[in-house]
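Discussion board: Methods & Data

I've been asked by a reviewer to show the raw model output for two of the constructs in my manuscript, not just the figures. I'm not sure how much to include, so I'm pasting the format here to get opinions. Each protein appears as its amino acid sequence followed by a line of discrete structure tokens. Is this the kind of thing reviewers expect to see in a supplement, or should I convert it first? Here is construct A:
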Amino acid sequence: MKQRKSKLGFLEMQVLSYAQLRNKNIFVTGELKKVLGITAKQERELLSRMNRSGVMIRLKRGAYLVPLRIPSGGRWMASEHLVLAKLMEIYQATYQISGPNAFYFYSYDNQVPMRVYVYNNRIYGEKNIGGIEFVFIKTSVKRLGSVRDYLTPEGINTVMVTRSRALLDAVYDWSRYNTIPRAYTWILSSIANEPEIIQNLIQDTLKYGNKGTARRIGYLLTLYGTRNKQLNKLKSKIGSTKTFIPWFPGQDLRGKINREWGLIINGNLPE
């Protein structure tokens, strides 16, 4: 079925022309009223009309993203990176992309994510913005970090977690992503290709992980043959281990007890 083109009226063209002239792609409620000399009611109707027709994108209540060039056919398909960057700018949030997007980015998983997973310090929940599905995971600023700037093909700077942080998140947030035991094989394959990642993974675990994550990653690194000196900091983070947690969470708890890391070894790594 052929997509129907959206008609742009006089006011719509005025908005897009103004945005292009001023190199301005975010408008807030009340701004266009002054620029176009219209009433508050007319502005609300204009913004609603442009949002419904796909000419602009409602980022949040009272804030809209506008293209700097008039879109072909009147409809605009903004990228997930542009929408995210501008949304985080409005919220003045610190953020980073992780989860399935990072697992795919680093080629651990070949399944293209249908949603964008964003750790940040301002908003939470699932949101559809401009036809793009986002999952916002709110956390403290202290748990945000170990990132790299990523320039998209369209020239938008976005924030992606590092490889070691992606691996940490796969273990830390296993219940959200169902990534254990896959995360363990990802870690071992990364070490085989890049041995220096061990130190980065330990540092990220110390700074952004919890005791459970430190136990599981510490035991995995012991299996790999990592020197005890490198693991001492992880052991210090764990402290005493009077209780035991499963190495493979969500599975049968039967298995050998590993007192060094406080784990129930209730599974084996896949061959």
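Construct B, same format:
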Amino acid sequence: MHKTGLVELKAVLAVARHRSFRAAARELDMSTSALSNAVIALEERLGIRLFNRTTRSVSLTEAGETFVERVAPAVADINLAMDVVNLRRASPKGTLRINASSGAARRILSPVIVDYLRAHPDMEVVIATDGRLVDIVAEGWDAGIRPSAVVPRDMVSVPLAEDVRFVVVGTPEYLAARDVPATPGDLARHECIRARMPSGALSPWEFWRDGKSEAIDVPGRLTLDEPNVMLEAARSGFGLAYLADKNCADDLKTGRLVQVLGDWMPPAYDLCLYYPGRRHVPAGLRALVELIGQHRRRR
């Protein structure tokens, strides 16, 4: 059985409204012959006549009346759905769902997301932090934020922020009371402030030497899940913390914290927003990408 097209249904409904093929064709911006062929094709497919036609008038048959009565509400719902989708495509409206690491979420929240919501009052933003790299398509996210090195190659990526570099830091008082670690192996004799990711897994400390990386599950009696709290713990002199340099830049500048193992730290990495495909990008996501570009140009 052939499927009936929306064009044919709209043709029948237009003729039913106007009781005229010519007027219906004008409404649908079709030629009269094309509209007539659409109606005839549907009648042949149904095996029943929907209209009585004479040279002077057009009227619905009894079957046509029943058909139009049933079909009209369904076509109206389809038209409404298409209008809603087109509106969302044309102007930002709806909900934008972003999956990010906790650090990335903090960096995009202010000022990008705040500015975005102020500029687009019909948009809502949901940001979920996750310690694992999720499949944003399979799990229903509009976009993700991760280091560019781990973004799948089939995704569109947009540079989001300046490079991020990690450092191991402690207070001068803490380091004066213990031997300053010379290699990552020396951390076994230190109080390390460990980080727990939202997934529940402990975040290893990554080091880099001679082009090779090494991830160490450091020992420690204190485990935290928020970098700002980790920074406060390091400031208290309890132990060493593994933090993004931007989180503790002021403390390093004033000497409140001191970096150790500087020769062992991994190269800087860059964060990016990524999403699937270049075609049919939702208006809300497209507006966010444009705003990110504006913020980068201002820096």
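Answer (T.O., handling editor elsewhere):
This is acceptable in a supplement if you add a one-line summary per construct. For B, something like: Residues 6-90 form a domain with the Arc Repressor Mutant, subunit A fold (CATH 1.10.10.10).
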